[in-house]
Amino acid sequence: MARGFFNVPKAVNEPVKGYAPGSPERAEVLATYKEMYNGNVDVPMHINGEEVRTGNTKNITPPHDHQHVVGQYHTADIAHVDAAISTALAAREAWSSVSWMERASIFLKAAELLAGPYRARMNAATMLAQSKNVYQAEIDAACEMIDFFRFNVEYMTDIFKDQPASAPYGIWNRVEYRPLEGFVYAISPFNFTSIAANLPAAAALMGNVVVWKPSDHQAYSAQVIVDLFKEAGLPDGVINVIYGDPVMISDRVLASPDFSGLHFTGSTHIFKSLWKQIGNNIHHYKTYPRIVGETGGKDFIWAHNSSNALQVATAITRGSFEYQGQKCSASSRAYIPASMWEDVKGHLIAQSNEIKIGSPEDPSNFVNAVIHEGSFDKIASFIDAAKADPDAEIIIGGGHDKSVGYFIEPTVILAKTPTYSTMTTELFGPVMTIFVYEDAEWEASLQLVDQSTEYALTGAIFSTDRYIVEKASKALENAAGNFYINDKPTGAVVGQQPFGGARASGTNDKAGSAQNLLRWTSVRMIKETFVTPTDYKYPFLG
Ligand code: NAD
User: Fold this and answer.
1) How much of the chain, in percent, has pLDDT values that exceed 90?
2) Is 294 among the catalytic positions?
3) Which of 73, 145, 187 has most ligand 1 atoms within 8 Å of CB, for mutation?
4) pTM assigned to the model
5) Which residue lies with its CA nearest to atom 21 of ligand 1?
6) From 54, 123, 201, 400, which residue has the greatest number of CB atoms within 10 Å?
7) CA distance 427 to 298
């Protein structure tokens, strides 16, 4: 089926495969995982389409099995950063002037390759090196990435269709959506393989050339993304991939006069420091750089006493513990009315007792390892502090063990004060902190939700009373860029819930939307007059 401008295929969400025991997709992904686990991948950088091996390598180890090496990736020195910038700029003329249909076709082909022959590899690499269970890998590395490619092509054509009026007759006004003049710098996080692919791809689709620095902790699946782009026909030099010291790389990239845009996803303090650095360099740039960043969160669940305790508990369990709480959208603070607390607590305990923790190689494990030792130590220190603090009580979990993998038990902390440290600090782990409020003070509790943190990424409210739903929605209007009513705050789907937060959580340019793609264009307005005037006098002159 086809629709829209120039007949692009209509974007539909990629169906999520089930991976049930005995299914062919489960057998294939587990066999691929095993092969990768026993193999030794060598991940080069990619500059001008060439594989660059510096010999300056770092090991890739599964977070759930950190003494086991599954490969290594090569890191850059300054000369590689310069080469990535200059080859991107050299590729710009051809890439920015090729028809948009050629660019669209590459990413549509990438989507189909990923839906088919690349699916098991992309998922297995994500399971192995980012410690995602098969379902979490499937919804990210396969489905969301496919959706980004398909929907962005459709959004691109929607943008092109937006043209000014041409009246009165005799003129033709039109706008060209040009790529930025220069190159885009994409910096991606570890936690979503799809985001890693989308940060360079969204800019490239709009005709930009890119220097992409993936997270060190996502290098394995980044290599699969590079292979996918290559097989889909992405020309050399359009997306150049470098690894290594992020400070050295960013200093060099941001010093280039041709730097024209930052597409960042990661933590808030790093985004703020990059923004500052761009500001300091502003006099050196040929153009004002576009700055797009999606950053941290302290995502909430708020329940009213008209809600259902089992639904609230289920939202907490899924929203806070899936992928070990390492989704930017993961709920990590909740506000529960006193009259419901015992029920919610009972359901939470029952659900967490069933949760299995371990390697993603065993699909029955709901929770796997957190990404690295630094993250493990940070989360464990907050849990241990809570154990010793009279203002906090560990209700569920609290255990952690890094002897084999970076495993942290799903943990629920009851906070006696609403601004207790784990109610306000992003830990990025499987830790939920709950504040119980007096039922009658529900309006004051909404203020706490709104005012306790600097973030505004995702949040959920639970109530069956429409007056309460409306009041809470209004009170929390600026507290979340993605707001959920009677649902967990995670699991945004491209094309359905465009994703992004405001306040300290980002520029809210909504990944997987036309708004995001627009940031990678600079409009040229063209007015053409068909019969050009020859008399300078207007009628009023008589
Ligand atoms: P991170 O900030 O540690 O790293 C992100 C990227 O920045 C990596 O590529 C890293 O190498 C790079 N980096 C690190 N230090 C840098 C520096 N000084 N200069 C330039 N680049 C630097 O984040 P992470 O641990 O990979 O991801 C987790 C964070 O990302 C969380 O805060 C999470 O909320 C956020 N996140 C947000 C969204 C969103 O859509 N809002 C999505 C995913 C992740």
Assistant:
1) 98
2) yes
3) 187
4) 0.97
5) 246
6) 123
7) 9
